[in-house]
Write the structure tokens for this entry.
Amino acid sequence: MIELEHVAKVFPGQAAAAVTDLSLEVGEGEIAVLIGPSGCGKSTTLRMINRLIEPTAGRITVAGKDIASQKPHHLRLAIGYVIQQGGLFPHRTIARNIATVPELLGWERSRINRRVEELMDLVGLEADLATRYPSELSGGQQQRVGVARALAADPPVLLMDEPFGAVDPIVRLRLQEELLSLQRRLHKTIVFVTHDIDEAIRLADCMAVLNVGGVLEQTGPPVDVLARPSGPFVLEFLGADRGLKRLALIPVSAAELQPGPTVEISDSTAAAKAVMARRQTDWVAVLDHGRVRGWASAGALDGHGDLARIDLTPFPVVVRPTDSLRHALDALVSSPTQVVLVVDADDRYLGLLDVARIGKGLES
Amino acid sequence: MSSVLSGASLGVSQPLIRWSWIGDHLGPIRHALLQHLALTFVAVGVGLVLSSLLAAFAIRFRITYQPINAVTGIMYAIPSLALFILLTPITGLTELTAEIALVSYTLQILFRSIVAGIDEVPASVRESARAMGLTRSQQLWRVELPLALPVIVSGLRIATVTTVGLVPISGILGSDQGGLGTFMFDGLARFFYTPLLVGGVLTVVLAVALDVTLVRLQRVLTPWVRRAHAS
């Protein structure tokens, strides 16, 4: 969808190149994240795609067409653009901000109004905000308006330049989630610039790690980059908790579960003790028709014949197959039994994970 | 000054205001007031057009900002009375002479406020306007000028009030010149307070009224500014 071929940029009056011989391809419907330290030319690269900056050398095509052959403002009408705080127009209401591109394209009033309503709903903005001005909105709301405005004329390509950089971490996390869920419905081709490695890992289908001077160090899906950094620069950039970051990308379903000590609540304590002996544990998980009820220690079983009479301790955390292994590890370290239970969407018991099994997940 | 106004030093007993004079001169007062307004509007209007052109030039070619600022600054610094007199050999004792001088005093303040207003538009807003696909002139008319309006209007207020205050001095050019200044020159020539006061007070009232009008106008044109402060 977007192709950069040997693109370079040297700003006038500067000796060092901002971008050096960069070739990159972004597939249709993909989120490509450009990441690197400041001075790595990631924003410059992004801005060359909608011709806010002209490359010194090389060729860029969008949807197969060389962008140099198109009028810049025509090209930009077909490319959504989101920057920090949305770059909203302070003198225009939210509705008119969102209507910017449709107005430029000369849509009819009624069509624009319908589209604005639809978009506000899509990005989760209350309809009564339409007549407000940007300064009356919170940072997170402004960011949503920025996304809505970029999507207004339904462009196939979206460029996002550190869009969530100015909001607090909790809001940022929510905006990232929203972007991903939006993307599952819209399938835009998105180029996203950030210096936040966690954001890149969370959002990217494909990430491009850039070094100072716009030198491409590595491209690939985050799982691959984390598993096999191309060199010392990428290794250092990924940070010391590279393994944990990878775990965050691998679902629990990818790990091999352990059956674990379980008994049905209708069973006797003797049966429970037998299970514990077989599994060599001092506790047992008690199920009720496959659903997890809690656990009991060996000591708690003494003096009772029926499991139903025993006070069970609930498991503080259980994880589901769709959760990440990192989430499972986190649950595990806070569990008194040093294991974490995996249950399905109906709370049916699936198995256990321990540290060794989670570690094995990294080898896959 | 206060001793002159007290009337005692003239040796003639004279009330500060002779109301009958005002009643007898309603026609000329109205005429002078309208002339004062017309001179002000033309001066500020022409000044706004010229300074807009200068500002557009200075924004496009940054290097010209300082020279333009310096030249308009010198024009602003010439004493008004001197300028009226200096121009007379060229343009005569006409309204044109008055307007040339008046316009020249508005240029610097308007030029500077237009450039400052446009410069103050946040870079992020400018960039997103470009990135949305607005052409250069759409960026100017739809984004930059509206956002520069508060600063431009504050320059316009100063230019307007200054002009209202300078118009009377152009009364030096002749009998039917200078708007309300006519009465001031008349009053001074005859040591007669009533026209002097009428001219002075109405000039102040005019300046305040125009200033208030511009403030109101700005509020109507820039609703986002007030809402921003309210939130």
